[in-house]
From TrEMBL:
Name the record gives this protein: Endonuclease/exonuclease/phosphatase family protein
InterPro entries for this protein: Endo/exonu/phosph_ase_sf, Endo/exonuclease/phosphatase
A GO molecular function held by the record: endonuclease activity
Keyword Nuclease: yes
Organism: Streptomyces luteireticuli
Swiss-Prot/TrEMBL keywords: Endonuclease, Hydrolase, Nuclease
Keyword flag Ubl conjugation: no
Stretches assigned to the Endonuclease/exonuclease/phosphatase domain: 24-241
Pfam annotation, one family: Exo_endo_phos
Lineage of the species this protein comes from: Bacteria, Bacillati, Actinomycetota, Actinomycetes, Kitasatosporales
Length: 254
């Protein structure tokens, strides 16, 4: 896999009350692949919050989610089948103030889409809104969903937020541009690791991303290829997307 990738800043609280939060976005393809490899990748990334796309949605989906959470050392927050795929997991570090799964308007003949949303508190005074999303493959519907993502973020009523997910759009696309215009595109602000998120060997594309509101400081963001504990073998076996890891410094307030 080449050179070892220096890790991003560790999660924790700083003297002024701000919190460093590690956020991972990962399309897990309904856990149809090697869940052990997937869990090892997640653990090596040491995230506080995981925004999942394509979580299990059908028969005994909660049992499958519980298996992944247990293997990765995380707990379930919201989403999965109730959001038609997007889901949020976390460590025990944040306090979950509220969480909700939302279904988006559906275009007949196309896949039902939704959002997993939560407000998490880190320590006594840092509040972070979190949205996990997986947008449409159709441009017109995708753009409308992008606007709904921004509306949902605003409706959380917090000053600082993060949106992470599989956009099915590239940085030159209009939906990606919509989100990048309103929020900070983590990779563009502070690139780290690998840029492209498509499966190894597939055409190079960046279609998964982590965005943050303007008051959040992006300390680094990208695909953790080369991070100790993240092997190419596990990345290939885990799912058909590569994960995106971001370290964010979130100010006090909310």
């Amino acid at each position: 896999m080449g050179d070892v990738l220096p890790d991003l800043p560790a999660s924790g609280s700083e003297a002024d009350g701000t919190a460093v939060v590690r956020v991972l976005s990962y399309n897990v393809r309904s856990l149809r692949d090697d869940v052990g490899a997937l869990a090892r990748v997640i653990r090596a990334c040491a995230p506080d919050v995981v925004c999942v796309q394509e979580a299990p949605r059908f028969f005994r989906w909660r049992k499958a989610v519980a298996r992944l959470a247990r293997a990765a050392g995380l707990v379930y927050v919201t989403g999965g089948a109730t959001a038609s795929g997007p889901m949020i997991l976390s460590t025990l570090r944040p306090h979950v103030e509220r969480a909700e799964a939302l279904l988006l308007p559906r275009t007949p003949g196309l896949h039902q889409r939704g959002l997993a949303t939560a407000v998490l508190r880190f320590g006594p005074a840092v509040r972070l809104g979190v949205i996990s999303c997986h947008l449409s493959i159709r441009d017109e519907e995708r753009y409308a969903q992008g606007r709904l993502v921004l509306d949902a973020l605003a409706s959380l009523g917090v000053s600082h937020g993060v949106v992470a997910g599989d956009l099915n759009d590239r940085p030159d696309g209009r939906t990606f541009g919509l989100l990048a215009g309103a929020l900070q595109d983590g990779w563009a602000v502070r690139p780290w690791g690998r840029e492209h998120t498509t499966r190894l060997g597939d055409p190079l594309q960046r279609i998964d991303a982590v965005f943050a509101t303007r008051g959040v400081e992006v300390l680094g963001c990208g695909v953790p290829m080369g991070l100790p504990g993240v092997s190419e073998t596990d990345l290939r076996a885990a799912t058909d997307h590569l994960p995106v890891l971001a370290a964010l410094r979130v100010p006090v307030g909310g």
